Amino acid sequence: MISANDLTAAELAALLHFHGDAGVEWLLEEQPVDRVAAFAAEREARQIRTPTPAPATAQMPAAAAKHSASERAAPRPPAAMPVAIPDEHAVTEARLTAESARSLAELKTAIEGFSACNLKMSARSTIFADGAATGRIMVIGPIPNGDDDREGLPFSGRPGQLLDRMLAAIGITRADTLLTTVIPWRPPGDRMPSVPESAICRPFIERQIELAEPRAVLLLGNYTARFFFGGNETIHGLRGQWREIACGNHTVPAMASLHPQELLTAPATKALAWQDLLAFKRRIAAI
To answer: CATH 3.40.470.10: does it fit domain 87-286?
Structure first.
């Protein structure tokens, strides 16, 4: 077994990135710890230190003892559980929250204070648009990944680095672009959001587009393309096509393409992504 002390700084960084891509979020001790045995020993020690009290009924009158016994026998009401907001009410609340924002800064604050989506309960960060709206180019991904959740920024880690290189190849930098994700919170286990979760988050991403007023949008990934275009086609059937998407009072041309993570998994598809990027470049040059 290789010790961490035998690795260089670069090798350690690569190992941490590997663990992050695999979904590892916590590092444990070098040696295993039997928590069950430790708990049992602690409980046994506590019982030895604490003398067993005499039964209270022995010192009570008979009537009081009978009443106390009946109280113990009666079932206690269950503890009150948090009341879940019905999905349709959560969607309405999200829409009202989004519509109340008059700027991207106000919308960011509003989303961070929104608590009617269960995805927020398990996420570390709220992911919002990052970059510059002045370039009027918007790139939208599906959900935050583990790196995004840790960094608090969209398109972090290896997929983000690849995206930077992809944009640079057509003369665009991250500073010129507004980057964001459809869903502002990372779902547990990087699963795709449910239909109700998607409906709750829809007003937030549509309001981001409406406030940013981009002249072109690049949609990355299967989920993102279906979210805006509808239907059940895969990204391979939706990519490379220009379509209009309407968000509030703003209608914008959008093209779907492969997500950087898909390109890392299947490098052979990079040629398709390059075709899409060239088409995107031609379109924004003509706008």
So the answer is: yes
Domains of the chain, by residue range, sit at 87-286
Distance, CA of 220 to CA of 231 (rounded, Å): 16
145-171 burial by CB neighbour count: b if 16+ within 10 A, else e? Answer: bbbbbbbebbbbbebbebbbebbeeee
Q: How are the residues of the chain apportioned to helix, strand and coil, as percentages rounded to the nearest 5?
A: 55, 10, 35
Query: Residue 264: how many CB atoms within 10 A of its CB?
Result: 15
Ranking 2-16, 58-72, 110-124 by mean pLDDT, the lowest is: 58-72
Q: Whole-model pTM?
A: 0.71
Decide the pairing of beta strands 250-257 and 242-247.
antiparallel
Retrieve residue 42's tokens: 């602690």
Lowest average pLDDT, out of 25-29, 199-203, 262-266, goes to 25-29
Cα–Cα separations (whole angstroms), residue 98 to 91, 210, 240, 277: 11, 10, 30, 31
Q: Which residues contact 281 (CB under 8 A, 6 or more apart)?
A: 170, 171
Beta bridge partners of 247: 250
| Amino acid code (one letter) for 49 | R
Cα separation, 143 vs 145, in Å, equals 6
pLDDT tens digits, one per residue of 211-262: 999 999 999 999 999 999 999 999 999 999 999 999 988 899 999 999 999 9
Q: Could you tell me the strand order of the sheet in which 242-247 lies?
A: 130-131, 178-181, 137-141, 216-220, 250-257, 242-247
Q: How far is CA 175 from the centre of its chain?
A: 23
176 vs 44, higher pLDDT? 176
Both tokens assigned to 8: 């260089």
